[in-house]
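User: Need the bound-state model for zinc ion:
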Amino acid sequence: MRILKIDHVGVAVKSAAESARLFSDALGLETEEEILNDRNLKIVMAKVGESRVELLEDLDANGTIAKFVEKHGEGLHHIAFEVDDVNEAAKKMKENGYRVLSEPQPGAGGTVVAFVHPKDTHGVLLELVERRK
Ligand code: ZN
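Assistant: Bound-state model below.
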């Protein structure tokens, strides 16, 4: 497993479109909106140099992001590391005793992602991202 960089930082918000104005209008960053149908999420990615900020809005009032916002308010939801092989990375984390929340699944922008439980990662959910072009 090789960690390549911080791919993005995920921020849970009430409205991705409204929150995107900070990044597009005020900060002048390039933003891109995407709907992840199978996860009921609206996502806005703001490009920040080599990395990005991912704004996550839940389209399901009972979804995990909606519940997160209800409990904690808007804020930092996860940190995503780009890895060269997400299957291998998830396997290695499990072997080391970390709880991986699901098998690698489709993420934003054609990526494959897996999440490591925040209780095992000092309070911040860790996302492992592989880019497949
Ligand atoms: Zn993410």
